[in-house]
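User: Some background: our group keeps a shared notebook of sequences we're curious about, and every so often someone picks one and asks for a predicted structure to add to the entry. Today it's my turn. The entry only has the sequence so far, pasted here. Could you supply the structure so I can complete it?
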Amino acid sequence: MADGDLSPVEAAKKVIVEFWGSQVSAWEQCRWAYLFGEGLIDSQTANAWADEVWCVSEEETEELQRS
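Assistant: Of course. Here's the predicted structure to add to the notebook entry:
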């Protein structure tokens, strides 16, 4: 998944975001609710990565509000 040209944080992002994305596409996995600890990746970074996977477009938000 990650190659030797990436920093540890970049490699972690690549692996994690790809894994989360596969969970969403395979069985519509919901976004995680809790972050139980921080290490190399802090909570702000983890949430930003999660936003990349589980973001809802303005169009989708408006559609949900009309329903």
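Suggested note for the entry: Residues 8-66 form one domain. The chain has a mean pLDDT of 85.
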